[in-house]
Amino acid sequence: MLDQLESGPWPSFVTGLKRLAHENNMMVDLLGQLEYSYKTRLGYWKGGTVSVFGYGGGIIPRFSEVASMFPESKEFHTLRVQPPTGNHYTTKMLRQLSDSWKKYGSGLIAFHGQTGNIMFIGTTTENTQHFFDEINEYGFDLGGAGPCVRTSMSCVGAARCEQSNCNEMKIHRLLVNDFIDDMHRPALPYKFKFKVSGCPNDCMNSIQRSDMAVIGTWRDDIKVDQAEVKNFVAKKGRKYVIDNVVARCPTKALSLNDDDTLAVDNRNCVKCMHCINVMTKALSPGDDKGVTVLIGGKRTLKIGDTFGTVIVPFMKLDTDEDYDKLREIAKNVIDFWAENGLEHERCGEMIERIGLVNFLEGVGLDVDPNMINHPRTVSYIRMDDWDQEAEKWMQRKQQAVG
Amino acid sequence: MSQATQAAEKKTMRPPIESGCPDGFQYLHPLMIKNFGNWKYHDRPRPGVLHHVAHSGDEIWTVRVGTTRQLDTYALNLLCDIIDQYGEGYVRFTIRSNMEIMVSKWEKVEPLIKALNDAGYPVGGTGNSVTMISHTQGWLHCDIPGTDAAGVVKALMDELHEEFVTEDMPNRVHITTSCCQINCGGQGDIAINIQHTKPPKINHDLVANVCERPSVVARCPVAAIRPAMVNGKPSLEVDEKKCICCGACFPPCPPMQINDPEHSKLAIWVGGKNSNARSKPTFHKLVAAGIPNNPPRWPEAAAIVKKILRVYKQDAKDWERMSDWVDRIGWPRFFELTELPFTKFHVDNWRGSRYTLNASTHIRF
């Protein structure tokens, strides 16, 4: 059956598996087991416990349930290895990783898993340690597996994107490496993922798949190069610009002037990125850059998919103190959740269970109207201390004015 | 092992260097280091190629190429050979397992593309194309898969190859697949996910020895699992009337087999989007289910995906993602155009789901 996946225009992973099988018996039996899965339409791996010396996670152990038929691949573990920020590599580094893996593993590597790891798929319990020792010596470390802080991801960002609003690589490393102990020694209620996107296009899908999403944004005006706007209108026509730029603005903040320049109501721009995506030459993010932080995104298990929720509408990330503040937020969130989350409960599920207000009090953040779509619709709530809460808001407003 | 030998072994073990995440900066193309945070704009000279211009006037071209995600060392080294010979030795991966090869001269782009194509790798996946399908591990490596991942993706990308190498869709199309209902593949404009239709089959002889029963009970989203004595052994039983066949009990308790060659079906979901562009991020919604899990080429699932794409391509306007398009035309029209049946299963019926119902007279005729 697998042979049928060797034809067709898209490159075939089966051809790759067969190439490896020429000189590696483990892959011969792996192909056998996979073919058996295709025939019976069932999977035959079970988990177990394998780790490297000093760590409690980072390996995905796999033991075959059909080892009697396919003995050579009875152990087929994966090592999760953290990729460099932004998934940047040189061929030199890729070859080095590939050579190490050829020595100790099956030769099969996935770039990358859904959490962001380089996945070195298929080795024995013994070689797990040897391979790790070798790549660890030249700068690579295991990622997370189990109830721990997991490997993170960051977009290409400032390295090659004009829409970047923050130093994605710096944020990525700061957060993950700050919690490296929580990654290698799983002791949290469940997994915790950071993801970093440089703008609201959110190429890393952080709102939907990370417990803490850090997304670059800006507070001041969109930068408009009116000459380029005119060029764009001349090239594409007024109708195209009105239909595809002006009319698609979610807050109706754009208007095409009679002289083919663009008027922007920046007070009502929600930084959705659409117009900037369409008119890459004419429009750019502003200069007063920073990040928005959202907490609690995850996939389906167990209460259904959740989005991250805004907990910091905007913060600057320029100075060391700013970065310390971000680190502090992450620490408070993880500490509060580690203390109050149930076993196997993601941070977003905990927020669903206890409510956002309790969570904010727990992590020491003030409530903010940017955290909601609209205020409550249900009147069934005790409001004994309304006056004190209203006073808090007034004081915060005063402080903001200075 | 005696304590003495254990201690001796410990001594020879190498403690890990907890270096964490490597700094990607050291692997950046020199032009990307020079112009870090100082890019001005980008455009796409042709499908599969990005062109970025910096405020300094520097330019860089990126060639995006589809891969199998699961790369064998031969393929990886072959690609490295091409990148060294026709590129400049620098490469990165997108979130959907495409490689991006950066070069400093426009003249290098065409030969690089030709070399990649000659080696069997498609260049594309940019702009309004159908880019590579993000996927999971499937039968190759997962412990709970209802179907394969890499095989499904290979079969589908064979069918969608043309849409990968061109930019003919109204907007970008992200397709995802997941081999169980946990949905590791994530949200997509189109998502093809396993949907179990029968409760787990329990091997009561094994449960007590293999499963931590209280955690399995706690794992069930609908409280359908309770401890029970079966054949004189402590085990677990499932209230099959309550069970929603999600498979959440299977990972912590392998004797509760949820996968079934016949009854684990595929479901197709549309309208997921993670970008904030235009509308806020959205989750995908169910449009088709009961599709046979049919390796090695999954033709029934492929046919529905292609049908949805065809209708979207015809009916959506420029810049409308799948969800924007459906928002404009409405769900009744979506089902009409795609000729998919609308059933009671499309209606969300959990306690908090009334907000998904139409509480208005906004109806298109």
UniProtKB/TrEMBL annotation, chain B:
Phylogenetic classification of the source organism: Bacteria, Pseudomonadati, Pseudomonadota, Gammaproteobacteria, Acidiferrobacterales
Domain 4Fe-4S ferredoxin-type: 234-263
Source organism of the structure: Sulfurifustis variabilis
GO biological process: one example: sulfate assimilation
The keyword Chaperone is assigned to this record: no
Cofactor requirement: [4Fe-4S] cluster; siroheme
PROSITE patterns assigned: 4FE4S_FER_1, 4FE4S_FER_2
Protein name per Swiss-Prot or TrEMBL: Sulfite reductase
Keyword Ribosomal protein tagged: no
Sample GO molecular function, one term: 4 iron, 4 sulfur cluster binding
Keywords for the protein's UniProt record, in alphabetical order: 4Fe-4S, Iron, Iron-sulfur, Metal-binding, Oxidoreductase
GO cellular component: sulfite reductase complex (NADPH)
Gene3D superfamilies documented for this protein: 3.30.70.20, 3.30.70.3340, Sulfite Reductase Hemoprotein, domain 1 (3.30.413.10)
